[in-house]
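User: Assemble these into one structure.

Assistant: Restating your components, then the assembled model:
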Amino acid sequence: MNELEMAAAKDPVCGMDVNREIASAQALTAEHDGETYYFCGKGCKLDFDENPARFFDPSYEPHM
Amino acid sequence: MSILEEMNATAPEHMTEITLPVVGMTCASCVNRIERHLNKADGVSIATVNLATERATVQFDPALIDRGRIVSTIEAAGYDVGRDSADTSAAGGVEAAEAADEAERATERRELLTGAAVSLAVGVTMMAIMFWPGGTPWPMIDINRWFLIPATIVQFVYGRRFLVAALRGARHLDANMNTLVAMGTLAAYGYSVFVTLLPDVVMRSGLGHETYFDSAAIIIGLILFGRWLEARAKGQAAGAVKALLKLRPDTARVLREGGEREIPVDQVVVGDLVRVRPGDRVPVDGVLIDGASAVDESMLTGESLPVEKGVGDRAIGATINASGSFVMRAERIGRDTTLAQIVTLVERAQGSKAPIQRVADRVTGWFVPAVIVIATLTFAAWMVFGPEPKLTYALTSAIAVLIIACPCAMGLATPTAIMVGTGKGAENGILIRDGAALEHAQRITTVVLDKTGTITRGEPAVTVVRPMPGVEQADLLRITATLERGSEHPLAEAIVRHAESLEIPIGEPADFASVAGRGVRGTIDAQVVLAGTPAYLAESGIQLPDSDALDIGDASGVFVARDGKLIGAIGLADTVKPASAGAIARLQSAGLDVWMISGDRRATANAIGAEVGIPADRILAEVMPGDKAARVAELQQAGGIVAMVGDGVNDAPALAQADLGIAIGTGADVALEASDITLVGDDLGGVPTAVRLSRATMRTIRQNLGWAFGYNILLIPVAAGLLFPLAGVLLNPALAAGAMALSSVSVVTNSLRLRAFRAA
């Protein structure tokens, strides 16, 4: 695992790979059930905050 | 019902679209999110967001949602809205376009001035070397070689615009003044290049080594200088538009979400409540809903006295609030404001051509080929009959003819005068649609004035108060105003206004009731009071005296009874605007046949006519609204060139029928569009001023054309060498160019003299 892969997390809303450090610096993170999630931008974070359960539904397909 | 709801109820049902810049989007889900939020919002029909351009385009019903709430919806979705210069819904668009035009003009002016300065410097230096006192210390052949490169630069870099334009014209077999400049300078330059590069051939053919590089450079320099002067004059004339734009304030104080916020004026939307404090400029057009003030409208109407404004009155953007504080509801913003429409009208007028200019253009069309023929003949005549060196004389004379004939000044004669004239009109509250309107205005012989709303105020005012014996005048007014306060009839409102203006205390009536079109009744001080038509009172058993006792003349009467007895009558009539009589007198003394047209009974119309000085045989009374245009046509058939002055919508057909339609007041947009001239002020005062201004402008144009043509016709024979056999006089090409530029300058200066025009 190289440095980049270590830094990358999957945005649960849109499915993009997100740099953990950059997302953290911009406060684009959310805590849910003890897990930290990282987001590409405000839109995804706000969508997630409003209804996190929706994105853990197995039928949910991350999409842009 | 809140004010906002009231506005929504009356707002027209139509969709508006705005495009907003969105800051902070990173991926497609951001797009989805904003679209979802916007499309959920009430009043938004469709919203699309573009990630690449970072723009949200929203179609919405302005009655249900406004820009502010669309912005807060986007903000609630987690994004910011940036400031957008390309927001076409904003008034900033007008200003930005104007700024871009100005930047373009500034660049053009700079290029012209640089070209003129460099060309003239090169030309004058060359001339100085060639005319060195006591002869040049260097051989002419060497000097010519030094000159070759600077002369070529001037000819093809700074003189490029003439060559390109001449070539473009030649492709369409169209010869214009650029053709003449190009031919004149190319002839001088080409001959000089030939002399410089082939000195041996020149020597053998008996020609001198004199070159005309200096002449070509000076001609180009002077013409560029003339164009620069023209461009500068344009900038000054366009100043009227800039001056108008400067009137617009940058910010507005709006009442939104319970608070007062100062926002950029281009973010004000229709329906916003705007507070205007004393000393502020009114930001947009709107209607007062609270407070009262006197507003200085002089920048738009020329009227020096502040205009009193109360609830229900319109306030116009860019005017200055002089005294009180008020809140108004924004009705017209951005490009719809009176100010923006004025700017558009002024621009349209300044870019248009008067028919008299088309004459000038036609003349130029045959003038140019004629000049080319004369130049050819001149060349031939010198070659055949001229003294030695024939070629030199023939060439210089032909070149001089080409230069002197340059119709520069003719091209300037009309546009400069019209630009200054229309700009001057705008300063005086006279908006002239185009050059044709300006030309028609000076030809008119007959002026037809609409009565209601044009000569008169168009609304009733109390003219007579006739109490019965034993009743105080103030008492009659107090009782009537108290009763009529509940009525919305225009006569009732006029009576209440009149009582208020006399500071008569008005009470509250009890048991108020009204019978439409007849009268009202109520209880005041425990007594039953009735007010209305004589018939209404008679029905209620009131005894009316014989008509002489309560004579109110032509006015409409409101008869008042208290406790079963008649106590008096109040007469109301449409009153003449203060400026009408003076304006009509000025039109008549300017030799114009002044008519009045009205749908009123002849007696009423004649009474108004007598008041403003229009004789009975010049009054067209009892004219149905639809027949006004026909009556104007009759006057035209009788040989009159007719100007129609009206106050808008119902006069529109007559305005269009007339040779010159003049709309009065800030009224309907229809008026602006249908008329040739719009008077920003509310009265007739601008009509005689408009006529005088158009006469002054057309006089200037004729002087200009006479100057330009006369100059050309006079000097061409001199340039051709006709005076040479008689007096030995020949025109040097450089001097010809100087004289020509001078004629352009004098034409422009003559036009600028119009700036001294003063409204009476």
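The CA atoms of residues 30 and 37 of chain A lie 5 Å apart.
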